[in-house]
């Protein structure tokens, strides 16, 4: 296998991935001298730290030995002890003037050292630093720190600790982390300055935040004990940073025994920052899994009454955590006859925080309520009623009251006559089982003056209602009232929340009136959200269903652009209410019991909505078909072919599928499933590869089968389209490969070569969910296409071969780096370290034979690696025999996780844009609304999305949409992960035309300059720029 092997001449891989000099110059210039290569390799990353060498003693600077530099350093110190030579210095021109004292730094030079440290802090970069250099630099900083006088300026020591912490955050080995932590522990134990101690604690916190998984357990304990000692410091800044370190480093089994009560002691500190930090440290320990005793609850409740917002905020979070950690722990509350569950008491305290003066605290309280799902139903329902519920008061019977009287030893008096009678009027102070803060808490949140609080309250109400069906019914009226909020985001939140709990509720007529009134909202997002919500809910009566259908049709006439979401809403309504639709079918279709009504226009959007509603109801209640007029049967056949996703399959005569689709359906039934049929196609392709004659025709037949499979089964569209595109590129390579065998063969057209490269780019950039084997096969296919492209261009001799040669070299470098990354990640995978998200796709279990390149790839990389001067002619002569006799590349195995990024343009509509002509004065601008739905779009691909506008004179404009124009498509389960909707406005302008002509609008993915991959068919609009009218 061709890998980067060190050799005296510059290898191919070094030519491609090396940083200096540039890639293009390396191909066109002569080979660099091999003597200069080792200097580039040993160049150190932390050269800027060499500026500190003059401030170190000469003996220490020259006697230091790290790696292979010990001999040169020691010899330098023996020859001239007065000269300053550092083992880490590679550029002596940056060393300041000599004359600095060897043992201590003068007072006048302390300012210079501080300015130098500030400069180093601003310029230093820790990327990809070798571990040996990190250790050397850490030792240098440690030595310089020890030379500072304790009574000197503390800013120098603070900056040195900051540099040492930067090295610790970059270190990737346990050995280096242990060394740096040892330095910190040793230096901080001898430090007396509170400013330096505070900075040291913060530096340890930074190291623990980024590299805690590399710190051994014993060192976690040492660092936590060091921070515990600093809690006795007189500086509040040091105390706060020490609490941060304890929260990050303290082990879980020692937390309750040593640190929890120590931190709880500082909840009563005089400084508000210390109080807040103590609560935050307890929260951090709890989030890491440490056991927080339930007796901390009363301390946290007292802290909620603090005057400072930061303390109340952390106390509120601690109360919430303790309530969820110990829900059934009973606590004794003051002036209450019996104990309360902690989750109920904590829920009441969080509800009280909804009346806090601070906006941030009210938002936090509203958000925390949604996660307290173990609260009792009585407390939960009390949040929706501002009046105290008297049935929460536990009433004692006469026997219990008599026993209490006897136990007290008092005589009965006239005042106690008939004291066991039921109390009709209750004082609020006598009801102490539930705190008054929980009464109407969510109502207070929904009526808050700030939209952040209202939005958070709606979200919490939705979370609680999803787990409590009875609470969902109670909260329905309040969510419906939020449809009238003045802020659009709050209205959308209420709509989506009601959609999420729709399975628990049935809408009444009075509630529908408020909902349907919001359908005329000016915001298209609100209208589409209401369509989604109405499709998810159920209605109770025929009158309610008729109200919904009639209002949807009226709004559709007002906003024709909402037809797609209205169609989807009608489909859901028909599926959920088949019996109600059956009762209203005759009225909706205008069927007269005696007279035959005229046939309605099938292109009428209102009529289409009614048909979609009735047909989807007939899927669940077949007798509806007998109520349909005869003309409706013909309309069903048309709609079944034009809208297969909206109109289901029904047993209606005269509406059969096409012969080709039926043939594929029969084969799918014989295979048992789409996956088995796909595997059967792959087995046939494997047999075709063994043939020698008529192989291309058979492969084209298999390609058409893969294309039909994706059209029939939407779940298999991604895998089948990926394999179909891969097979199409393989067929093109095989056809062009024949042109390289003889000199007289006709060279294929430039368009055919461009189509091959476009297929390779499509495989590489428009498909997601690929594993390592799939990516490797795609890169090998592109390498073959690039090699074939270079060979054909050189043999054609009609165009320059420099571009194809450069593309081949870049493709080879890319696949080499990809395989090298695979080998590196495999070696790292053997260590028990956490794996980052970027490297997860490279560590999947692969099928045998899919994790290694084929013989053609290995031979080609070896040939290119051996070329010292990669010019087109030389590369052509080396790779020509390989390209002529290259065996076919095997297809990757079926991967059901593959998804393809594709788009569907909704506006401008393909059906209506041909009839409506956009007229504008020549030279001016016409704004055209553009709406498209994009499936399986990754977050990284949004920046590469383009809207291409092609005019009849072949002029093309490319528009880059704003990132805010991409919004996720909402479903009944919430936001879709990868499906987004692009809604924007495009501008058309041109000079005078004699007549209206078609302008094509298309969505593309810009993968590289000059290469754009189309994601959908173009939408065409009639555009007519008219001349300027003069004289009027």
Automatic annotation (TrEMBL):
Residues 905-1028 form the Integrator complex subunit 4/Protein SIEL C-terminal Ig-like domain. One of its GO terms (biological process) is snRNA processing. Keywords: Nucleus. This is Integrator complex subunit 4. It is found in: Nucleus. Transmembrane segments: none annotated. Gene3D superfamilies: Leucine-rich Repeat Variant. The lineage of its organism: Eukaryota, Metazoa, Ecdysozoa, Arthropoda, Hexapoda. SUPFAM superfamilies: ARM repeat.
């Amino acid at each position: 296998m061709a890998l980067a092997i060190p050799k005296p001449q510059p290898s191919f891989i070094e030519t491609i991935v090396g940083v200096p000099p540039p890639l293009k110059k390396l191909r066109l210039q002569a080979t660099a001298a091999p003597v200069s290569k080792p200097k580039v390799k040993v160049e150190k990353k932390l050269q800027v730290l060499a500026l500190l060498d003059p401030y170190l003693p000469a003996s220490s600077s020259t006697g230091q030995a790290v790696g292979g530099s010990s001999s040169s350093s020691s010899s330098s110190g023996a020859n001239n002890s007065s000269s300053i030579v550092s083992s880490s210095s590679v550029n002596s021109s940056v060393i300041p003037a000599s004359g600095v004292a060897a043992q201590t730094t003068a007072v006048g030079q302390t300012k210079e050292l501080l300015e130098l440290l500030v400069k180093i802090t601003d310029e230093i970069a820790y990327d990809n630093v070798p571990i040996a250099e990190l250790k050397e630099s850490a030792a240098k900083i440690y030595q310089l720190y020890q030379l500072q006088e304790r009574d000197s300026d503390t800013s120098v020591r603070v900056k040195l600790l900051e540099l040492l912490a930067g090295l610790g955050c970059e270190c990737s080995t346990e050995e280096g982390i242990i060394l740096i932590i040892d330095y910190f522990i040793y230096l901080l134990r001898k430090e007396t300055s509170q400013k330096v101690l505070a900075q040291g604690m913060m530096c340890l916190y930074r190291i623990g935040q980024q590299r805690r998984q590399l710190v051994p357990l014993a060192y976690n304990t040492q660092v936590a004990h060091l921070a515990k000692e600093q809690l006795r410091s007189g500086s509040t800044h040091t105390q706060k940073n020490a609490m941060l370190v304890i929260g990050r480093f303290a082990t879980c089994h020692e937390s309750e025994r040593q640190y929890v009560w120590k931190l709880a002691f500082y909840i009563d500190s005089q400084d508000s920052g210390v109080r807040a930090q103590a609560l935050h440290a307890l929260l951090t320990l709890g989030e890491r899994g440490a056991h927080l005793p339930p007796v901390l609850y009363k301390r946290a409740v007292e802290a909620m009454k603090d005057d400072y917002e930061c303390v109340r905020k952390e106390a509120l979070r601690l109360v919430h955590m303790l309530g969820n950690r110990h829900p059934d722990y009973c606590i004794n509350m003051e002036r209450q006859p019996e104990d309360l569950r902690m989750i109920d008491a904590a829920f009441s305290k969080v509800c009280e925080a909804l009346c806090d003066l601070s906006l941030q605290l009210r938002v936090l309280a509203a958000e925390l309520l949604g996660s307290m799902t173990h609260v009792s139903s009585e407390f939960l329902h009390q949040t929706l009623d501002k009046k105290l519920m008297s049935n929460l008061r536990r009433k004692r019977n006469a026997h219990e009251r008599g026993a209490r009287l006897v136990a007290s030893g008092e005589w009965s008096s006239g005042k106690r006559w008939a004291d066991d009678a039921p109390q009709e009027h209750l004082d609020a102070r006598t009801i102490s089982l539930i705190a008054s803060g929980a009464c109407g808490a969510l109502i207070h949140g929904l009526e808050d003056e700030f939209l952040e609080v209202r939005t958070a309250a709606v979200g919490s109400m939705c979370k609680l209602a999803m787990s409590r069906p009875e609470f969902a019914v109670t909260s329905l009226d309040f969510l419906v009232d939020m449809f009238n909020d003045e802020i659009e985001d709050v209205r959308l939140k209420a709509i989506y929340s009601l959609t999420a709990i729709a399975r628990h509720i049935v809408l009444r007529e009075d509630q529908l009136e408020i909902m349907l009134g919001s359908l005329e909202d000016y915001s298209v997002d609100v209208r589409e959200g209401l369509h989604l919500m109405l499709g998810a809910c159920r209605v109770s009566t025929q009158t309610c269903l008729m109200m919904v259908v009639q209002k949807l049709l009226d709004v559709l006439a007002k906003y024709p652009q909402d037809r797609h979401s209205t169609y989807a809403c009608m489909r859901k309504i028909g599926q959920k209410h088949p019996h109600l639709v059956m009762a209203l079918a005759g009225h909706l279709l205008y069927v007269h019991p005696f007279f035959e009504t005229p046939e309605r226009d099938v292109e009428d959007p209102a009529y289409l909505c009614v048909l979609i509603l009735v047909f989807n109801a007939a899927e669940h209640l077949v007798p509806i078909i007998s109520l349909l007029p005869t003309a409706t049967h013909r309309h069903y056949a048309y709609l079944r072919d034009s809208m297969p996703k909206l109109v289901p399959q029904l047993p209606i005569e005269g509406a059969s599928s096409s012969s080709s689709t039926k043939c594929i359906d029969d084969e799918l039934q014989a295979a048992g499933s789409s996956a088995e049929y796909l595997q059967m196609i792959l087995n046939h392709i494997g047999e075709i590869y063994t043939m020698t004659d008529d192989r291309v025709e058979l492969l084209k037949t298999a390609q058409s089968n893969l294309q039909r499979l994706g059209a029939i089964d939407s779940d298999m569209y991604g895998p089948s389209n990926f394999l179909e595109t891969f097979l199409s590129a393989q067929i093109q390579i095989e056809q062009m490969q024949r042109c390289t065998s003889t000199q007289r063969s006709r060279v294929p057209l430039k368009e055919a070569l461009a189509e091959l490269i476009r297929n390779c780019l499509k495989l590489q950039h428009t498909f997601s969910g690929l594993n390592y084997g799939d990516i490797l096969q795609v890169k090998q296919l592109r390498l073959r296409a690039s090699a074939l492209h270079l060979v054909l261009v050189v043999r054609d001799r009609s165009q320059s071969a420099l571009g194809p040669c450069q593309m081949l070299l870049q493709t080879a470098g890319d696949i080499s780096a990809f395989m090298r990354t695979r080998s590196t990640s495999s070696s790292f995978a053997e260590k028990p370290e956490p794996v980052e998200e970027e490297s997860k796709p490279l560590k999947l279990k692969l099928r045998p034979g899919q994790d290694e390149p084929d013989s053609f790839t290995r031979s080609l990389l070896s040939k290119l690696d051996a070329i010292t001067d990669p010019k087109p002619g030389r590369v052509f002569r080396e790779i020509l025999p390989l390209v002529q006799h290259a065996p076919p590349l095997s297809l990757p195995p079926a991967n059901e996780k593959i998804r393809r990024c594709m788009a569907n343009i909704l506006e401008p509509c393909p059906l209506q844009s041909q009839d409506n002509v956009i007229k504008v004065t020549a030279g001016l601008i016409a704004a055209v609304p553009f709406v498209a739905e994009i499936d399986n779009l990754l977050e990284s691909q949004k920046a590469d999305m383009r809207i291409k506008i092609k005019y009849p004179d072949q002029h093309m404009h490319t528009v880059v949409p704003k990132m805010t124009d991409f919004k996720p498509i909402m479903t009944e389960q919430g936001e879709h992960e990868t499906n987004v909707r692009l809604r924007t406005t495009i501008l058309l302008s041109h000079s005078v035309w004699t007549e209206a002509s078609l302008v094509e609008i298309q969505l593309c993915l810009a993968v590289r300059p000059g290469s754009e991959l189309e994601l959908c068919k173009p939408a065409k609009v009639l555009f007519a720029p008219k001349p300027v009218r003069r004289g009027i």
